[in-house]
Amino acid sequence: MPRSRLLPDNFTLALLVTVALASLLPAHGDAARFFEQLTTLAIGLLFFLHGAKLSREAIVSGITHWRLHLLVFACTFVLFPVLGVALKPVLSSLVTPALYTGVLFLCVLPATVQSAIAFTALGGGNIAAAVCSASASTLLGVFVTPLLANLLVVHGQGGSSLESIGHILLQLMVPFVAGHLLRPWIGEFVGKHKTALTLVDRGSILLVVYTAFSAAVVEGLWSHIPLSALAGLLVVCAVLLALALATSRFAARRLGFSKPDEVTIVFCGSKKSLASGVPMAHVLFSASAAGAVVLPLMLFHQLQLMVCAVLAQRYSGRTAAPAAG
User: Could you give the CA distance from residue 20 to residue 26 in angstroms, rounded to a whole number?
Assistant: First the structure.
């Protein structure tokens, strides 16, 4: 019997196991330093693969549907940050300051690729536009997310903007560009070994999560986050997702987009990337702070999968009904 779409997927379960492992057996001393260095290498490899997988044709073809992409980018990089800042009086009262920092960081991240495309296909949306939009969002995120994070999050925490941007360029952008430039030579290999590379991709994220939570647990993460704050975080993530879904849908209809384009806009404009967010948090924040910062992203990741699975099924039914008639 296939697993219900409302249940956590295998990767989410692996994330939960990793958090539990870091909480019970956090890395200390030399082990912590080893994992820090290993994590840095893993992040470089992760973004190298992201660059190698990004098709140049997808970027070029995306230009032809520029109105749709502009709306998706506006939802991803404008709507979410505005919501995070504008709702601060309400949201910050539900969570701890550290978790609210994570919520702001969540708001400046790029859209996810795989699930946005999958839900667009399931809902009968414009798949070609989804591929272009989600891929371009990943590319823009390497530039835009660090700038927004320094403006709204890191700078407010006393970090150095130039130093943070320098770390991003060295650890994320250089491998990303290198992977993309080498795509003519390694693109075929990447395409043939998607399963193995997916394991590398997800293994890198799990390593970053373990390292971040280990450092946070050593600093007393769980003693600083009461159960009420975790419950409040669930409410915060639900509110942000609901507003993003409703606003993107309203904007798509108001601007006269077709139903398939509306589906694409809703699913690409409401997603946030765990694959990009976890390593970026490791670069932008101290080891002890990164654990609390990625916690909202992990919760939002699972929530968006559950809600969008139901929404995609409803869209699918609506688009299939006219065809049946």
Answer: 9
pLDDT exceeds cutoff 80 at 322: no
> What tens digit of pLDDT does each residue of 112-157 get?
877 788 888 888 888 878 878 887 888 788 888 888 888 887 654 4
User: Is residue 267 a contact partner of residue 312, using CB atoms and an 8 Å limit?
Assistant: yes
Measured distance CA(179)–CA(167) in Å, rounded: 18
Name the residue with tokens 């997800």.
202
What fold does the segment set 32-318 form as a domain?
Answer: Na+/H+ antiporter like fold (1.20.1530)
Rounded percentage of the chain residues whose pLDDT exceeds 70 = 86
Give counts: helices (H), strands (E), the chain. 18, 0
CA angle 275, 310, 61 (to 5 degrees): 50
What's the token pair of residue 167?
């770390």
Domain ranges of the chain: 32-318
Supply angle C-alpha 220, 209, 170, rounded to 5. Answer: 110
Distance set, CA 306 to CA 98, 106, 129, 266, 313 (Å): 25, 18, 23, 15, 11
pLDDT at 58: 59
Q: What are the tens digits of pLDDT across the range 240-274?
A: 999 999 999 999 999 999 999 999 999 999 999 88
